From TrEMBL:
This is Inosine-5'-monophosphate dehydrogenase (EC). SMART domains: CBS. It comes from Amycolatopsis camponoti. GO terms for molecular function: IMP dehydrogenase activity. It is an enzyme of class 1 (oxidoreductase).
Amino acid sequence: MKARDIMTRPVVRVGPGTPVREAIVMLTEHCVAALPVVGEDDAVLGVFTEADALRSGVAGKGPAPDVLVCSTMTSPAETVGLDTDVTEIARRMLGDRLRSIPVVDDGVLVGIVSRRDMLSPLVRQDDSITSHLNALLSDYAGHRDRWTISVTGGMVTIRGAFTDEAERRVVTALAKTVHGVVGVELWEETSVTFGESRGAVGP
């Protein structure tokens, strides 16, 4: 799963000339931990975080009206690309104690990934994944019921007959496109004259 699959968009953002007081209001109103700071070309210049907001205050009185985001933001900002794997994002979040990371494409802000976004695939209902995957594989198979699908904790098991290794790869790839899937296991079930032969098949 990649950043593009879980990121939030559109992104609540500010410019370097935004007053800190206004940025703090945006943090609280939108319930976000950080605001990307972008230039006119939407290039990420930095991030304004809750920690930056706290540091901008003086003895709890809040920042002066003329204090701007550019003077308090964290810069340079940590960013990831659209195709950055979620495991790498999690590693950077934990290692650098980040609560969110902007997502860029050719240097332009296109989304943001928060810790909450990272958790969402883990709590998606298994029956929702099953329903989506059933529809996907039904379309692929010409609306014939060729496989049975079970999902537990995002782990998908697909049972049935597969034409060849190429089809197994296609079915596995299709399953992995469904949001919330954490793994795929295929079980070959082929009817024979005196019973059935079953065995696990690797993706």
